[in-house]
Design a protein that fits this description.
Strand 1 and strand 2 form a beta hairpin. The N and C termini lie far apart (40 Å). This protein has one domain. Helix content is 30%, strand content 22%. Strands 3-2-1-4-5-7-6 form a 7-stranded mixed β-sheet, with helices on both faces. The chain is built from 4 helices and 7 strands. The longest helix is centred in the middle third of the chain and has 16 residues. The protein has 182 residues and is of the alpha/beta class.
C-alpha cells in the first residue's frame, strides 16, 4: 500500500461540560502520528445555545473547529474518519473523503437520513479488533464502496477506532494543564 495520511476528527466535551474542543489527528498508514491540532475550548453563551438549539454542536464541530483545523494542517489527509454522526455534515464542505466509523454493536442515534446513507461492515482479518461499520454522507453514498479496499488494508495495520481514544486522552491532559482547554 502506498503511503497514506489518515485523518481522525472529533468534537469533545470538556471537563466542565459546557464547552467543546475540536481535535484532528493525522497519522501514517500504520497509525503513527504525523500531526495533531486542536482548538481552544469553544464555550457557547446561553443565547447561542437557545438560538442554535440542536444545531449548536454541528455548527461548532464543522464551522468553528473542523474546517479551520483542516485548513491549518501541513499533512492533508487522504481519508478522514469521524466519530459522531452529525459531523458527517463536514463532508460537503471539504474535498477529503469522509467516513463515520464506529464499532459494530454500538448504538448511535443517526437522527435523520439514516436510510439514505451507505454503510459498510469491515472485519479485521486477524480478529484482533472488533468489526467496524463505516457510514457516508448521503450525498457521497459511493465513498465507502470506493474506499473499502483502502480501509481494509488500514484496519489490518491498526485499530481505526483507537486514535479517537488517544485524542480524547490528549484533550484531557491539555485540560488539566492549560485553562484554554477547559
Amino acid at each position: 500500500m502506498e503511503k497514506q495520511k489518515i485523518g481522525f476528527f472529533s468534537l469533545y466535551d470538556t471537563d466542565t461540560a459546557d464547552s467543546y474542543v475540536g481535535a484532528l489527528l493525522v497519522t501514517d498508514q500504520n497509525g503513527i502520528p504525523l500531526e495533531f491540532k486542536c482548538t481552544h475550548s469553544v464555550k457557547p453563551t446561553l443565547i447561542q445555545k437557545t438560538l442554535y438549539g440542536e444545531k449548536l454542536k454541528p455548527y461548532i464541530a464543522i464551522t468553528l473547529c473542523g474546517i479551520p483545523l483542516l485548513n491549518n494542517i501541513s499533512n492533508k489527509p487522504d481519508i478522514l474518519f469521524i466519530s459522531t454522526p452529525f459531523i458527517l455534515g463536514l463532508r460537503p464542505e471539504i474535498e477529503i473523503p469522509t467516513l463515520l466509523i464506529r464499532r459494530t454493536g454500538e448504538t448511535i442515534n443517526l437522527q435523520t437520513e439514516d436510510d439514505e446513507t451507505e454503510k459498510q461492515k469491515i472485519e479485521n482479518e486477524s480478529g484482533q479488533y472488533n468489526a467496524i461499520i463505516l457510514q457516508t454522507h448521503p450525498d457521497n453514498k459511493e465513498e465507502s464502496k470506493l474506499l473499502i479496499g483502502t480501509v481494509n488494508q488500514l484496519f489490518n495495520n491498526f485499530d481505526l477506532i483507537e486514535p479517537f481514544e488517544r485524542m480524547k486522552k490528549s484533550i484531557e491532559i491539555l485540560g488539566k494543564n492549560d485553562t484554554n482547554f477547559k
